Amino acid sequence: MDFVLRKLEETVPWSSWIERLEGVTLAELIGPGLPQLEASLPSWVDKGLRLLENGVPAAMKAVNLPSLVQEQVQKFPIERLEEVILSVSGREFRAITWLGVLLGGVIGLFQSMITLMWR
Predict the structure, then answer these.
(1) Mind listing the pLDDT tens digit for each residue in 89-103?
(2) Closest CA to 100 of 112, 111, 89, 108
(3) 9 near 17, Cβ under 8 Å?
């Protein structure tokens, strides 16, 4: 096998081909065929979308997403779930508390003003 690889390296000028390719830009490569590419692009996109449309149900059936989600939820550690719930609810309860303080203060000021006006 080594002999074949050595002979292939000796007979095929790989390094000169690679050096020439390094200097070629993408515009030079696709420039001459750009009109044909632009003309055929919509049909290729349609074919790709049809392939995806036909393949997604089979992939979903193969993945069996509901059981995968159920399995991942069951594997999720209860301690971590408790931490997440407490951190979210803690922030919400603090917000509710401060809104209550603000609302109570506004109501108290309003009542005080009404009481002073009625005297």
Answers:
(1) 888 888 899 999 999
(2) 108
(3) no
